[in-house]
Amino acid sequence: xxxxxxIFPDNxxxxxxxxxxFYDKNKDKMSLESVHERRAExxxxxxxxxxxxxxxxxxxxxxxxxxxxxxxxxxxxxHQPNLFAYSGVFRKxxxxxxxxxxxxxxxxxxxxxxxxxxxxDFTDDRWVRSCQLPAVQRSxxxxxxxxxxxxxxxxxxxxKPSSEVVKKWRIEIEKWLDESIRSVERLCKELGFREICSGxxxxxxxxxxxxxxxxxxxxxxxxxxxxxxxxxxxxxIVNGVWEYDTVFARFSECQQTFVDEFxxxxxxxxxxxxxxxxxxxxxxxxxxxxxxxxxxPLLAPFWYHCDxxxxxxxxxxxxxxxxxxxxxxxxxxxHHELGFGTRNDPDTSGITxxxxxxxxxxxxxxxxxxxxxxxxxxxxxxRYLMEAQHVAEGLGISFPPVVVWxxxxxxxxxxxxxxxLELKRICRSSGAPDLxxxxxxxxxxxx
Length: 447
Known about the structure:
Layout: H1 12-30, H2 33-53, H3 58-69, E1 73-79, H4 87-107, E2 111-117, H5 126-129, E3 130-134, E4 142-146, H6 163-191, H7 199-222, H8 226-241, E5 247-250, H9 251-254, H10 259-267, H11 269-281, E6 299-305, E7 311-319, E8 322-328, E9 335-342, E10 355-357, H12 359-370, E11 374-377, H13 382-395, E12 402-404, H14 414-430, H15 435-446
Parallel strand pairs: 1-2, 1-11, 2-5, 11-12
Antiparallel strand pairs: 3-4, 6-7, 6-10, 7-8, 8-9
Helix pairs in contact: 1-4, 2-3, 6-7, 6-14, 7-8, 11-13, 12-13, 14-15
């Protein structure tokens, strides 16, 4: 029977207990010189990001100093730089921040909450190319804000959108806002809810949008790459508006510090490959979807970056005692063949800036190098994390508690208010006492 992994706590109290237990058990490892070195190097990349973004606040600067000193507890999360990221992305930062405060109180040591920007992911992901707003009067009930991106490129190799595209977004959102406000006002009058609408609330909605768009424009001016544009907006909200002390860094920069950790995975590749195969076949509670592909156990634990701005997955072989990686670029199709030294003495130092971790190895190299006491994940990566845990335990890598927080969002914005009022109007016009009955009546009429 499948069992729930012990690293996934069920509630916040249990999470705090897991993190404290992990810290007490592993604080000697956290004192290792190699861990201090990784944290110090990460602090430099984080400081550079916040200077570029304009969010090197006093509290962020203090956390970077704590990271550089190497004596802090580290909590970690990560995400792609999505276009106008939705609540699930910011929820990771919130949980990380709240957990850091609680652990600081309980352990009486500095706690750094680190947010990694996965800017080397492909441009293909839906949410890095679009965001959605509720729009009950539109087809599908959604207004989609989108940008066209080249296929199969890394996000940090794509330029920020043109100013014309950004202006178009503003016009679309302002039009949506005006339409939603007018619809809410009309429905309020029709349904007799006049007290809901007021000039003051309408004015506040426009002020909120202007405040948000000033953040967008500032981030646009500061950025050159599409990934930075989106990441800067995330940091501006988290560090600026909410005043969290979250430390951000780009994966494209900070992953370069894990040369020894990548070499460790190469030196134990036979075990790494075997453990990946076992993890794939291992049952998990609830049949969580996703996880690594059938090819993964055959691949080097990192992507290789092609000159075209895309990436190649490398099939790893041992030829005459030399580790050889071979594969074609996902973008241009160019064939790459690279040597990584011998299994007993692997070496990636010459190509450090041209490799990036894969889904499983990202957790392994960061957990071994930084020794975080918690990782805040997402529901989409839950299976990867379970598989990574199995591999880590087999290789002797300490695997911290992992938490996935996915509550049901309840948000009463202007789009949601419009939808609720429209549902009320439908119920009233159809003579139905509730929405379920109204739905049945409408389906009956349509059929």
